Amino acid sequence: MPSFDEVLKEAGEFGRFQKRVFFLLSQTGITFSSLFASVVFLGRAPDSFWCRIPGAAELSERCGWTLEEERNFTVLSLHLGNESVSGECERLDVTWDASVSCTSPLARYGNRSTGSLPLAPCHGNWVYEQPHSSIVSEYDLVCGNAWMLDLSQAILNLGFLAGAFILGYAADRYGRILIYLLSCLGVGICGIIVAFSPNFTVFLIFRFLQGMFGKGTWMTCYVIVTEIVGSDQRMVGIVIQIFFTLGIIILPGVAYLIPTWQGIQLAISLPNFLFLLYYWVVPESPRWLLTRKKGEKALKIMRNIAKHNGKFLSPHHSEITVSNEEVSNPSFLDLVRTPQMRRNTLILMYAWFTSALIYQGLVMRLGIIGGNLYLDFFISGAVELPAAFLIIVTIDRIGRRLPFAVGNMVASIACLITAFLPEDIPWLKTTVATLGRLSITIAFEVVYLVNSELYPTTLRNFGVSLCSSLCDLGGIIAPFLLFRLAAIWLELPLIIFSILAAVCGLLVLLLPETKGISLPETVEDVEQL
Which residue windows are coiled coil (predicted)? Predict the structure, then answer.
């Protein structure tokens, strides 16, 4: 009986069929990256807001004030009396009733300066010039509630984490394409509910669920793509990252054209329903079918692949070699039971954590230096495109380990240099920081490929999902690490990033080289790498 890789060579390792499936599934990267980075635009800080004095709404209606006039009577007079008070998080501790004059509402306090009037903290009585432009103005995530915006992103990353475990396990047990389609449905439905959430609690619950299903779509489509191509064509795992970058580049344009956060949320959620049409064009992974002792179904799919590729399988291919490894429900112990699997798992977990922490940290660092949000975000995404092309031209020539290690080491050096460059040469500081961003993107993209190549088919989806869950943990920690350490010294986070990347660059050299090697089918295959 021929092996799967022998049959795949005969059917075509990257023919018309695989190219079509690759292109269709790659679109998932655009929607996933939009979800991944959406908080930047969903949570835009409002251009202008202030705290309304109790009774001001009724007085404004009686007096026929515009919002600008109401603001002048409250905030402007408050600011003139005390320049340190902006009127956003504090208000005059007064109440306006029917006896207040429309022309001079503060006249009742006599000759007292507004600076001598008592102040009170604002509690849920804010007025926004654009009340539905972001979730910040929608749910009053300002002043003492500002930390809730960070919570919303942490909740999304927790959803990614849950998706990595729950849906990664499910994809290994129930099939890749089934979990992919269910995840697409879940992302779409949860996205709609998020857009029309009546309160912040409902928003957080369904943002968590959208993150969970979103991770399911991304990880599962990635595994399907790598399992249906030959060992010489697995750089498609890198090319698919370009579509993730395209999502990052497209997102600021979408946000610029759509004025409300609900519109942005729907724009990044609704396309997932189109992916349900893949039910009729994307088959189950034949590699997975073989691990579940479904050789006949796998052979039927392989014959269909050969037909679309203009090839023909030999008549003696009545059966494909089925994995001799006992099919069981995967667990973490399976990933650390043998020496090589244990080494690979621990190093990959650290690499995922480091790549995500540094990547998100550098992205958010761009945000705290000000500037045009849309343009800065677009440029930060465009910087990632050369990373994929650099990997494509080197990955099959010099292998995986060297680009993996060099990406981390260059990122480490760039972060260290950036931290100590003087502020009076901003162009050089920005250039070196951009080099760090490019380098860590290379490392981030290579870890996807290497992770899928170092696990057997029976554990591949679970292994990729489990290791990449450390990416989500890094995403949760990144904002706290960045902003807390930056409060001590602005460049301190870069020192931490440099140390983490340097350690990672050394560790990945201990991984086996997988260039040109067939995907391992069993744990024994991994041990012999």
Answer: none
